[in-house]
């Protein structure tokens, strides 16, 4: 989609101002109108209700894996589709109110994925400090600064004996909330990347670029031996590579899982369409969650015999057999 069009639509994002999600949106649609949401579920629901046109939410990161709230909210409810992905390199600072020393820090507020990415460094820097979960990194920073709601279990900012003395936030966010940086570069894995997705109501499928991904959610047949292999064969026999596959509980019974995955290619690629047709035949539930350009623009490798022309030639050959 053209930059001009992107800038005319309203985006819900995981807020408040200063989250990594906001940074991802600034990269994707710099001048667009935006609406901060308190969590991933409300950002996606705002698209479903029509309150906004699009939402941008974290989907996956290179250290902690899939973001359950995003995967699960996309999996059920009114249909939504991914129309773009944005990759952001993530680095964290440990921030506190002015005058706080490292030795004062007994609890650290932040988003669970941020804590997971800094756990080892925190155990060295502030030994014994516990994590206080927040809805986002910036929400933790705002609460510490005395703006916005406190994270779960946190006492109101400004009260004597704050339940958390520091927050893990994005480097540019500490100063915006009037906080001081106690330590920077506190992530355990330098170079960690988070993948954000732009989500819309169904209707528009971005044009095929030759470097695309297709996101799907699939249920397997009940108690069928080899069901997982049968599902995977639909991709393998059409030369479609999966760049992500993970299981999420369906929620109706113990041991029932849905598979969330990204296939390399676009629904307009004959091999991807053939894989989808195959999935529909062998799986009880298949949800198409969008075809969109890869953020890294790496062209999809198409194995011999799997190009659109190969499928068309094969179909023509079968037609010819009857004639
Ligand atoms: O909390 C944020 O700032 C977010 O945007 C979610 C998040 C948290 C940790 C790593 C990447 C994204």
Automatic annotation (TrEMBL):
GO molecular function per UniProt: prephenate dehydratase activity
Pathway assignment: Amino-acid biosynthesis; L-phenylalanine biosynthesis; phenylpyruvate from prephenate: step 1/1
Every Prephenate dehydratase domain range: 10-201
InterPro entries assigned to the protein according to its UniProt record, in alphabetical order: ACT-like_dom_sf, ACT_dom, Chor_mutase/pphenate_deHydtase, Preph_deHydtase, Preph_deHydtase_CS
Entry EC number(s): 4.2.1.51
GO biological process: L-phenylalanine biosynthetic process
Chemical reaction(s) catalysed: prephenate + H(+) = 3-phenylpyruvate + CO2 + H2O
CDD domains named among the record's database cross-references: ACT_CM-PDT, PBP2_Aa-PDT_like
Keyword terms, alphabetized: Amino-acid biosynthesis, Aromatic amino acid biosynthesis, Lyase, Phenylalanine biosynthesis
GO CC list: cytoplasm
Positions of the record's site feature: Essential for prephenate dehydratase activity: 194
Protein name per its UniProtKB record: Prephenate dehydratase
Source organism of the structure: Serinibacter salmoneus
Organism lineage: Bacteria, Bacillati, Actinomycetota, Actinomycetes, Micrococcales
């Amino acid at each position: 989609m053209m930059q001009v069009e992107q800038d005319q639509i309203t985006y819900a994002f995981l807020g408040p101002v200063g989250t990594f999600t906001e940074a991802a949106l600034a990269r994707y649609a710099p001048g667009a109108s935006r609406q901060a949401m308190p969590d991933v579920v409300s950002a996606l629901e705002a698209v479903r209700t029509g309150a906004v046109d699009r939402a941008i939410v974290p989907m996956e990161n290179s250290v902690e894996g899939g973001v359950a709230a995003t995967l699960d909210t996309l999996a059920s409810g009114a249909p939504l589709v991914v129309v773009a992905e944005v990759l952001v390199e993530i680095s964290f600072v440990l921030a506190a109110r002015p005058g706080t020393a490292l030795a004062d820090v007994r609890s650290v507020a932040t988003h669970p994925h941020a804590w997971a990415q800094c756990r080892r460094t925190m155990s060295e820097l502030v030994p014994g400090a516990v994590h206080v979960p927040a809805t986002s990194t910036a929400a933790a920073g705002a609460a510490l600064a005395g703006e916005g709601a406190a994270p779960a279990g946190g006492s109101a900012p400004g009260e004597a004996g704050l339940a958390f003395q520091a927050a893990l936030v994005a480097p540019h966010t500490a100063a915006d909330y009037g906080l001081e940086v106690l330590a920077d570069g506190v992530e355990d894995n330098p170079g960690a990347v988070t993948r954000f997705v732009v989500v819309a109501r169904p209707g528009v499928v971005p044009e095929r670029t030759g470097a695309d991904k297709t996101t799907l959610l699939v249920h397997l047949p009940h108690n069928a031996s080899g069901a997982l292999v049968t599902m995977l064969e639909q991709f393998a026999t059409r030369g479609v590579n999966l760049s992500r596959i993970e299981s999420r509980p369906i929620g109706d019974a113990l041991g029932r899982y849905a598979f969330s995955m990204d296939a390399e290619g676009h629904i307009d690629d004959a091999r991807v369409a053939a894989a989808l047709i195959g999935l529909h035949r062998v799986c009880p539930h298949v949800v198409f969650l969008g075809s969109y350009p890869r953020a890294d623009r790496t062209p999809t490798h198409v194995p011999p015999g799997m190009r659109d022309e190969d499928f068309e030639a094969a179909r023509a050959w079968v037609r010819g057999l009857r004639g």
